[in-house]
Structure formats: C-alpha cells, structure tokens
Specification:
The chain is an alpha+beta fold and 151 residues long. It has one domain: Gcn5-related N-acetyltransferase (GNAT) (Aminopeptidase). It has 5 helices and 7 strands. A 7-stranded mixed sheet has the order 1-2-3-4-5-7-6, with helices on both faces. Helix 3 links the parallel strand 4 and strand 5. The protein is globular, with a radius of gyration of 14 Å. The two termini are 24 Å apart. The structure holds coenzyme A. Coenzyme A binds next to strand 4, helix 3, strand 5 and helix 4. Coenzyme A (COA) binds next to strand 4, helix 3, strand 5 and helix 4.
Length: 151
C-alpha cells in the first residue's frame, strides 16, 4: 500500500533512508529534516504496516518545478516494482498540484531514465538546490546526475 507517512513513523523512515545513505546511494536525512518535510513523503508499507519504500516530492514552486527526493526501497524488497509505483505516485501528486516539471539528483540515472526522465544540466536547476549541496559531504566532488521529466 502506498500512502503519506504519519508523523510517528519518522524514525522508521529515517532508518530506511539512512540505510541507503550508508551505501552512498542517497543523501542522509536528519530526523529534523524529516519532521520539517513530513508532508513530502510517500511510503510503501508491507503487510505488517512496516515501511519498505519511500519517496519525497518537494515543491520548489518557481518555474512550476518540484524535486523527487529520497527514493529508497528496502534491499529485501527491491526489483518488485515498488520503486516504480512510488515514482508514479509522486508524479501523480505533482500533476494534481499543477507542477509541470519534476527533477531528481541521483546516483542511479539509469533507473530514472527507464521511467521517462532525461538528463539535464544542473545549472538549469534553481539556485535553491545548491543550499543542500553546500551542506553535503560529497560537495564539491559530487557524482550525482540531474534528471528531469515533463508531466
Ligand atoms: C533505485 C530503487 C529505488 C529501485 O527500486 P525497485 O523497487 O527495486 O525498482 P523497481 O522494481 O520498481 O524497478 C523498475 C525498473 O527499474 C529497473 N531498476 C531497478 N533498480 C535499478 C537500478 N539501480 N538501475 C537501473 N535499473 C534499475 C528494474 O529492473 C525495472 O526495470 P524493468 O521494468 O525494465 O525490469 C532501489 O534500487 C533503491 O532503493 N536503491 C537504493 C537507493 C537509490 O539508489 N535511490 C535512487 C536515487 S534517489
């Protein structure tokens, strides 16, 4: 089942994201970040209600843009189309909001390209994204690629 996260699930969400961050796949998130952005997060839950996948949609606003963030599926549940369903859900929400383009900064551009995203130059993205980059441990030798989709 895919639904929005509940506030008391913030720690479980953080565990999932940070387990992928430990492998260098996504950026680490603080509990404070999750609480402040709690409305952004979709979660995929298993039969016992446990969180096994997540994806954030963060509206930037300017240029009718949003960012897809922290897309993670638990290692034990990968390759079962959960990531694909989470992307679809987030893009559906973006469409409902009237957002016209969604981008992601990712170490897995191939996965996103399978779902209609194309490469873009990071310099085409709003300056606001650099705030997060500046605070990232990978800056300035970052291997993340920017991908974007028109919806
Ligand atoms: C990337 C990730 C979210 C994919 O989730 P998933 O549930 O395993 O993906 P799906 O089962 O929905 O895969 C859908 C398609 O993408 C392909 N795919 C999955 N992971 C892929 C990857 N890392 N690279 C390339 N293609 C990938 C699948 O083969 C499938 O393609 P197909 O339909 O042609 O067979 C998951 O591997 C993950 O959590 N990785 C660690 C975190 C990460 O890299 N996040 C993305 C950066 S924000």
């Amino acid at each position: 089942m895919i639904r929005k996260i509940k506030i008391d699930e913030a720690r479980s969400l953080q565990r999932l994201i940070n387990s992928a961050a430990a492998g260098g796949h996504v950026l680490e998130r603080s509990l404070n970040y999750i609480y402040e952005n709690v409305r952004d997060f979709w979660v995929y839950t298993g039969q016992e209600g446990q969180i096994i996948g997540c994806c954030g949609l963060h509206v930037i606003g300017w240029q009718s843009l949003a960012e897809l963030k922290s897309l993670v599926v638990d290692k034990n549940f990968q390759r079962k189309n959960i990531g694909q369903q989470l992307i679809k859900k987030a893009l559906g929400e973006a469409k409902e909001l009237g957002v016209s383009k969604v981008f992601a900064l990712t170490f897995s551009p191939v996965f996103f390209k399978k779902h209609g995203f194309v490469s873009t130059d990071k310099n085409n993205l709003p300056h606001k994204i650099w705030t997060e980059c500046l605070n990232c441990k990978h800056f300035p030798d970052c291997k993340e690629e920017a991908v974007i989709i028109e919806i």
